[in-house]
Amino acid sequence: MPYDEKIVGHALEWQTCGDRMQLDQAKMAGESKSSSDGTALGERVKPSSPSMLYQALPGIHDEMMDVSGAVLPHWQQWFHAFSTWTEDERASHFEKLNQVVRETGIAFDLFADPYEAKQPWSIDLAPLIIAPDEWQWLQTALSQRARLFNAINADLYGPRKLIQEGYLPAELVFSDPSYLRAMHGHKGMFNGLQFFAADLAKGADGTWRVLDNHAETPAGVGFAVANRISLTHCEGNLFRQSNAKRLAPYFQQLQNTLIDRSGLEDPHIAILSPGPEHPDYFSHAYLARYLGYLLVEGGDLVCQNNQVHLKTLAGLKPIDLIVRSIEGAKADPLELNPDGFDGATSMVRAVRSMGVKMINELGTAIVENRAIAPYLPPISQYLLGEDLMLREAPRWWLGDPASVLHVMKNLDQMLITDAHEGSGRPGEVRPAIDGATLTEQDKTALVQKMSLMGKTMVAEQKLDFATTPSWTGQSLEPRPFAVRFFTSRKSQNYEVMPGGLSMSVGGTQAIGLFAPEGLTRDVWIASDTKLAPFESVWPTLDKAGAYSRAGRSLQSRIADNLFWLGRNVERIEWQFRLCRQALSRLDEDSGPEEDQRTVISALNSLILRAPKAPVFDAGFGGMNEIERLVRTILYGKNRTHGFQESVYHMHRLSGLTRDRMSSEAWRILNDFFTDRRWHKEPGFVHSGQVIDLLDKGLMSLAAFSGMAMENMTRNYGWRFLDIGRRVERAENLAGLFSRLVFAPGMATDSTRRMMFILEVADSFITYRSRYRIMPSLPAVIDLLLLDEANPRSIAFQIAALSDHINSLPMEPEMGLRSEENRLILALLSEIQLAEGHLLSHIPQMDESKDIEQVITEKSQLENLLDNQMSKLPQLTEILTRRYFTHTEDKPHRI
Questions:
Q1: Shortest CA distance to 836 belongs to which of 795, 869, 871, 799?
Q2: What is the pLDDT of residues 472-487, one digit of tens each?
Q3: Contact call for residues 281 and 221 (beta carbons, < 8 A)
Q4: Residue 45 gets which letter from DSSP?
Q5: How far apart are CA 805 and CA 798, in angstroms?
Q6: What are the φ and ψ backbone dihedral angles of 589, each rounded to 5 degrees?
Q7: Which PANTHER family does the entry mention (predicted)?
Q8: Angle at 645 between CA 644 and CA 646, to 5 degrees
């Protein structure tokens, strides 16, 4: 439809006129600053210590101090306590907070470089405190804004009266790829917005303004919860003394609302995440764990009969309500973006048929379009009959020719960016084009871009920010800030979370929450009444006997991740033990030449698994062959069985399964991974130093194993973690045994090789307690291959695997044994029926046989080890097919 001139009139009228609500807001803020009666401390507190002197910037509104330099009433409790801390106490609190941030895992993405010195996320020791009267106004304004955006969304996917009546240009809506035509007419859009968030900032005059709106996902609320828990862990007393409101009642109300929206008494609720590659993944995982919901990805789901099901070990389980944390356009490759696999095929059909409740509904991202801002005041009057309380800074949609002319005339005062950017990680919006920095050539290119893509662009007038105190590590300094506030629907209104996520912003470089330093702070809402005690966000058990010991609903993806976590932890332990024993042999007396050959052959059992990967130069720092191979295993890149590859996967998988392990177990692996000594190749160091480092690493891995053994419930998650460890340990020991026993020179070097195998397998003390002789092949075979009582033997691993597999939930058809059950039974029977004295007969060690007999004859031991090494990978393949991917072993014609 042609552009309606009435839209221009509305936009100019509401954008340029004085705003009564903004004036009321400024008046309210001024009254808050001028009043000090009724506070806990009475008179205002001025900093007396020079080291704690805090000075606001002249002419800029400051959150803690008024223009006279006095601390505002709602800050007095915190500032008084903070200023009485000694320098050592402040440093201790600051370091403790940094430690909590690191241990929580919020400081590092799963794929971040652990050697990067700068943390991508940090929490300020100083919170942002909001006064009770100001919070009352913000609650009303944010709730109104959420109701307005919900009404806009319902109209755009319903009657579209805003377009028909000229309140919004059609080009603005239909040029936005986040508008999903497949959802038009869906009755669920009437209450499509359960979650709404807004990024707000104060101008230099102290007036709140809107930077961005978030209506697609929960928009990083998990970060806000993590910040609150982290800061109160260090400043719990200050939080209570400030009489700040808690978050738990808000989330309990949210849980009740989601249950009501599901229409069921005990619904299955899941948070749908795009996966660990997404910058908001920490928030998704943290929120899922905090609320007790399942965290799922698109690959975990399948749509059948207009319902969404979760793939579990026990088959498909229905999902009743999905909290969507993915882009709506990527939810269904069949009806939406064909490249979008964050959801499941036919998910749109399931949502439209009401087979599953989707929160927020698909398509709600359309109201995030920044170009809607100039039209919001008249739309608020039209849809709500109310004056809009919160406004954006002056903004222009560049699909309007008149707006383009205005922007070009005032280009030095403008920031230009995309109209729709998406939620993303808080603080990581794209920098805008600053008109003041453009050359004439850049301006010409900008005009051309606006002529082609103006419908997808906006311009905004640059404004300064107010400041709030920030602790730098040495002093309090004023910094510009912005806040993300979160709301959720409750009946016919919206409840605002009594807190938020504040960030130090990077000046006027972007339209939106731009925080390149990643410095965040918790938001405290001061209360003027005594707060009632609140125990927990979790409900109580109402029904007698309503207990649950279920474990069959474990997601297939989680089982897969736990399986490979177990394998990688065990793989690292094996690498460490092998390298430690190799260096120990070198460190003792340089050893005879035969001993050197044994060690080199053992190290090559790992090196040759990645034959194309580079090996360190033998001439580095005067290293001999053993040191060169050890360095290659520990620090070589792109080696499938090297330490660097294994520790990366261990950290990634531990992050993906974090909600399945205790906090102590997570901290052990996280501290291990973030130790920079594992990631930076050292210069020349003595082998003894490397051995000490490997010993410490083995202690960390042993601590994790102990935590897993003692703290994990014996459910299917624990079983798959242990299955991974047993498979890896059996494969490694069988491979080392085969390589050393059947390599040339065994007849003359048998004792040294058996000694080395015993030491790597951590069984030398057990051997010495049983035998008073030097290590011999028959005794070592009995201890490391056939003894089911030795937790390091192959027999023990196979027996444990048999026990686990017999307990898995997949039942075979027609009373037959399953494929994995038959395979592990064959391996266990072979081990149990083997006789040690027959296995120890090696043709290569029989001097009475000629060379042709030695070459053609294969010993029972070699057959047994080859069978173990070939069947264990088959077991992994079967488990993957049956329990992880749910794919059939035979293709069917369709």
A1: 795
A2: 888 899 999 999 999 9
A3: no
A4: P
A5: 10
A6: -150, 25
A7: BLR2978 PROTEIN, BLR5612 PROTEIN
A8: 95
Rounded to 10 deg, the angle between the 593-607 and 625-635 helix axes is 20
Helix (H) or strand (E) holding 358: strand 357-359
CA nearest 647: which of 684, 619, 675? 675
- C-alpha dist (Å) from residue 730 to 574, 609, 794, 795: 11, 16, 5, 8
Q: 303 φ, ψ to 5°? A: -100, 125
Tens digits of per-residue pLDDT, 445-477? Answer: 999 999 899 999 999 998 889 999 999 888 899
Mean pLDDT over residues 161-186, rounded? 94
Q: What is the DSSP string of 128-195?
A: EEE-HHHHHHHHHHHHHHHHHHHHHHHHHTTT-HHHHTTSS-HHHHHT-TT--GGGTT-GGGGG--SE
Please give the structure tokens belonging to residue 181. Answer: 């035509």
SS3 at position 886:
coil
Signed CA dihedral, 555, 557, 563, 569: sign only: negative
What would the mean pLDDT of 694-705 be, rounded to a whole number? 94
Dist CA 865 CA 733 (whole Å): 10
Which of 194, 193, 218, 362 is CA-nearest to residue 290? 218
Handedness of CA 130, 136, 139, 145 (dihedral sign): negative
Report d(CA 314, CA 552) in Å as an integer.
6
Q: How far is CA 532 from CA 74, 101, 500, 550, in A?
A: 19, 29, 21, 35
Could you give the percent of the chain with pLDDT greater than 90? 51
**How far is residue 852's CA from residue 17's CA, in Å, rounded to a whole number?**
101
In this structure, what token pair is assigned to residue 92?
């201790």
- 608-612 long-range Cβ contacts below 8 angstroms, 24+ apart: 609/639, 609/640, 609/641, 610/638, 610/639, 610/640, 610/641, 610/642
What type of residue sits at position 578? L
Q: Within 10 A of 612 (CB to CB), how many other CB atoms are there?
A: 6
Tell me the Ramachandran region of residue 385: left when phi exceeds 0, alpha when psi lies from -120 to 50, beta otherwise: left
Where does the pLDDT of residue 208 fall: very low under 50, low under 70, confident under 90, or very high at 90 and above? Answer: very high
Cα→Cα distances 460→75, 406, 416, 433, 506, Å: 33, 11, 7, 10, 16
Q: Are 316 and 207 in contact (CB under 8 A)?
A: no
Q: Under a CB-based contact definition with an 8 Å cutoff, are residues 839 and 833 in contact?
A: no
Centre a 10 Å sphere on the Cβ of residue 551 and count the other Cβ atoms it contains.
17
- Residue indicated by tokens 């494969």: 731
Name the β-bridge partners of 317: 310
C-alpha dihedral, 793 to 795 to 799 to 802, nearest 10° = 110
8 Å CB contact between 633 and 642: yes
Residues 6 or more apart whose Cβ sits within 8 Å of residue 874? 823
CA distances from 553 to 316, 318, 547, 556, 879 (A): 9, 11, 15, 9, 17
Q: Which amino acid is at 306?
A: N
pLDDT at 42: 39
pTM, to two decimals? 0.82
pLDDT band (50, 70, 90) for residue 369? very high
Tokens of 388: 């809009």
Q: What is the mean pLDDT of the chain?
A: 84
Length in residues, the chain:
894
**Residue 542 pLDDT grade (very low, low, confident, very high; cuts 50, 70, 90):** low
How would residue 51 be classed by pLDDT, with cut points 50, 70 and 90? very low
Predicted confidence (pLDDT) at residue 8 exceeds the cutoff of 50: no
Question: Could you give the 3-state DSSP secondary structure of residue 86?
Answer: coil
Q: Which helix (H) or strand (E) holds 756?
A: helix 746-760
Q: CA distances (Å), 643 to each of 24, 461, 606, 670, 678, in order?
A: 63, 52, 10, 16, 9
